[in-house]
Specification:
Length: 67
């Protein structure tokens, strides 16, 4: 549900942190003017749990000992 530009890794990686925040704020203001709300920049889904020989890892609360 991201804007088309934000799906391009090269485009996103070219931003500094400050530029990315400014882009997000500008985009949210534009969505409010269009009546689309905050759903585009909502939280991303959690990555799926991976199974390794040393244990499971979901990148949040259950971390593999290898990490």
């Amino acid at each position: 549900m991201r804007p088309v530009e934000m799906l391009d890794r090269d485009f996103v990686n070219a931003f500094t942190f400050d530029q990315a925040i400014t882009y997000k704020e500008h985009y949210q203001e534009e969505l409010k003017r269009q009546g689309k709300g905050d759903t585009v920049f909502g939280r991303d889904a959690m990555p799926p749990t991976k199974r390794y020989s040393a244990g499971e890892d979901n990148c949040a609360d259950k971390l593999c000992p290898i990490r």
